[in-house]
């Protein structure tokens, strides 16, 4: 994931809106206590997600892949006062840690945190979705897209993380299954006539898909 110049990254963060104290603590405690802290969205991506959410003003956000809750807290900033964010994760071991930070947030009551398999839970969501954030097991990205795209309102957004996969998607020598799955997923979305596409080289790559009217 460290393929963007660290000086450019630091400069970008310095000239972006700062994190809240709660997000700073969550970042610090994740790095101190939790395995694979690089999975955390972090300051720059978090502010981007919060900005997009505030522009969309969603009534319902679906997040697939919670980890320790940083991205969920950022996305929740844009919810309307009666809005809800549903975040799905299978990792029971992180539930207590993650829920403790949701409980400290003034937005915690709007976050519906479910320890479930997303493949089984998404079909149960009947409401129209305004914004989806996918950041889970890469080999199932195509399945998650297929499960959510018809549930997203026209003009709504699907944002998908890690689509550059530390730059491996353009490395012809990278033959592992996750890399190939991401290449296939990016191509699939490009060819899908239901969405407009923008792939941003922000952090590890964000694919932004807008549902066509």
TrEMBL record:
It holds the Pfam family Methyltransf_3. The keyword Nucleotide-binding does not apply. The keyword Metal-binding does not apply. Keywords: Methyltransferase, S-adenosyl-L-methionine, Transferase. It comes from the Bacteria. InterPro entries: Cation-dep_OMT, SAM-dependent_MTases_sf, SAM_O-MeTrfase. This is O-methyltransferase. The lineage of its organism: Bacteria, Pseudomonadati, Bacteroidota, Cytophagia, Cytophagales.
């Amino acid at each position: 994931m460290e393929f963007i110049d660290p000086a450019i990254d630091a400069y970008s963060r310095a000239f972006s809106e700062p994190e809240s104290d709660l997000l700073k603590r969550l970042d610090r405690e994740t790095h101190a206590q939790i395995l694979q802290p690089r999975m955390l969205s972090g300051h720059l991506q978090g502010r981007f997600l919060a900005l997009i959410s505030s522009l969309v003003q969603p009534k319902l956000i679906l997040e697939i892949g919670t980890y320790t809750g940083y991205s969920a807290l950022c996305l929740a900033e844009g919810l309307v006062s009666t809005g809800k964010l549903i975040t799905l994760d299978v990792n029971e071991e992180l539930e207590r840690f993650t829920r403790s930070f949701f409980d400290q947030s003034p937005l915690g009551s709007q976050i519906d945190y479910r320890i479930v398999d997303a493949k089984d839970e998404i079909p149960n969501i009947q409401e129209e979705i305004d914004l989806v954030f996918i950041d889970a097991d890469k080999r199932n990205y195509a399945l998650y897209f297929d499960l959510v795209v018809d549930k997203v309102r026209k003009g709504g957004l699907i944002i998908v993380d890690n689509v550059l996969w530390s730059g491996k998607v353009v490395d012809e020598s990278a033959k592992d299954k996750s890399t190939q799955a991401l290449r296939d997923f990016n191509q699939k979305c490009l060819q899908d006539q239901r969405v407009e596409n923008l792939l941003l080289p922000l952090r590890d790559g964000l694919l932004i898909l807008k549902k066509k009217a």
